[in-house]
């Protein structure tokens, strides 16, 4: 049993971090924090506009500052952006104060889930499948190395995924009060 004050979901875009996370947080009595949504609330604009105005580096700097702040809390289920794990500082903060669950999903499943989503700056361009495959090769090993638990969410409805993940967490994660 791994003790930690927060539960953290990592994984690629379209894995279900927000939808599964929201449902799971409600079931577990945790506050739900979606990092991308929190950034949008703070800036008053969307992630694509932040990317457009500040570039990916500007967005990542904002994301890192937000993660540093959010991870000081406890009793939260934190859904990170897909690229949040690229920064060592973020990985360290997530590891220090979170039980980390990697939501795994196949590229075909991502394509299906993201088919009508126009809010993904990293998917701008003609060949979304090639881009998702490249991101999976780059980020997959990072997700796997960071995770306390890998969970295959491929093809699962949100409620089913939340049910199965909740059952696994009962034997793997112990919520603690942080010092």
Automatic annotation (TrEMBL):
Residues noted as binding ATP in the record, renumbered to the chain: 14-19, 120
Family affiliation: Belongs to the shikimate kinase family.
Name of the protein described by the UniProt record: Shikimate kinase
Names of required cofactors: Mg(2+)
GO biological process terms, semicolon-separated: amino acid biosynthetic process; aromatic amino acid family biosynthetic process; chorismate biosynthetic process
Role played: Catalyzes the specific phosphorylation of the 3-hydroxyl group of shikimic acid using ATP as a cosubstrate.
EC number: 2.7.1.71
Sequence positions that bind substrate: 36, 60, 82, 139
């Amino acid at each position: 049993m791994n003790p930690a004050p927060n539960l953290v979901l990592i994984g690629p875009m379209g894995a279900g971090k927000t939808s599964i996370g929201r449902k799971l947080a409600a079931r577990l009595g945790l506050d739900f924090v979606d990092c991308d949504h929190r950034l949008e609330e703070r800036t008053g604009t969307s992630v694509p506009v932040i990317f457009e105005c500040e570039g990916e580096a500007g967005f990542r700097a904002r994301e890192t500052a937000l993660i540093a702040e959010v991870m000081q809390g406890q009793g939260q289920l934190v859904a990170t952006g897909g690229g949040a794990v690229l920064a060592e500082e973020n990985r360290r903060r997530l590891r220090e104060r979170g039980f980390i669950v990697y939501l795994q999903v196949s590229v075909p499943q991502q394509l299906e889930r993201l088919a009508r989503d126009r809010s993904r700056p990293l998917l701008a361009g003609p060949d979304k499948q090639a881009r998702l495959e490249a991101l999976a090769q780059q980020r997959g090993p990072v997700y796997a190395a960071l995770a306390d638990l890998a969970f295959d969410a491929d093809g699962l409805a949100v409620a089913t995924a939340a049910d199965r993940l909740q059952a696994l967490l009962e034997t793997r994660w112990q919520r603690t009060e942080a010092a």
